[in-house]
Amino acid sequence: MIDFEPKYITFDCYGTLTNFRMADVARQLYGDKLDAAQMDRFVEYFRGYRLDEVLGAWKPFRDVVANAVRRTCERTGMPYDEATAAKIYDAVPKWGPHPDVPEGLARLAKKYRLVILSNAADEQIDSNVAKLGAPFYRVYTAQQAQAYKPLQKAFEYMFAQLDCNPEDVLHVSSSFRYDLMTAYDMGIRHKAFVNRRHEPLNPYYGVTEVSGIPDLASQLGL
């Protein structure tokens, strides 16, 4: 059980709530040009370059995706096509939640104020949030913060907007690299790791592991 009553439950969106299918779309677009092993490498490089692209000064998410595709193509010897990169970016608003999410969020929303902090563009996030099926008190994006997670500036923006402190929230994510390591560094004591199997559990960072959002609600006594 999570023995804590947060002022807010703050969530990562893409990957944690929304089924983030960027690797799937890359496979659809490049799978006929690469064999299975090459495609696996392409997806891994693409994942790494997306993280690298958000670590500096803020840039539009469209540029993050395009630059990551371009760098991946250069590394794998594939020709880069701007229109193909745009197809990956344009797919994002179409994605809906993981199957467990609507039920779990509905239970949580009966008691708690729910907040999203997402590495998203303003023009995309409303479509994704609408598909989650629950009311959110606030939704903040990297575009608004002018910083992407894992930079602390993104979290600082959220805390300033909510007029609260790190110790006031329960932060929920399926990613240590983007969220939970930074949350630990910032003094967010209460953290939940939603194990979506795309990153391993790392107990060092003081998280409560949950299998999904309904499990999170159960851990909070709902």
Essential attributes:
single chain; 222 residues; alpha/beta; Rossmann fold; DNA polymerase, domain 1; 2 domains; 6-stranded parallel β-sheet; 10 helices; 6 strands; globular
Q: What does this molecule look like?
A:
With 222 residues, the protein is of the alpha/beta class. The chain folds into two domains: 137 residues, HAD superfamily/HAD-like (Rossmann fold); 72 residues, DNA polymerase, domain 1. It contains ten helices and six strands. Strands 3-2-1-4-5-6 form a six-stranded parallel sheet, sandwiched between helices. Strand 4, helix 9 and strand 5 form a beta-alpha-beta unit. Helix 1 crosses helix 2, helix 3 crosses helix 4 and helix 5 packs parallel to helix 10. It is globular and about 50 Å long. It starts with 7 loop residues before the first strand and ends with a helix. The model has no long low-confidence stretch (mean pLDDT 97). Keywords: Hydrolase. Pfam families: Hydrolase (PF00702). One of its GO terms (molecular function) is hydrolase activity, acting on acid halide bonds, in C-halide compounds. This is Haloacid dehalogenase. InterPro entries: 2-HAD, HAD-like_sf, HAD-SF_hydro_IA, HAD_sf, S-2-haloacid_dehalogenase.
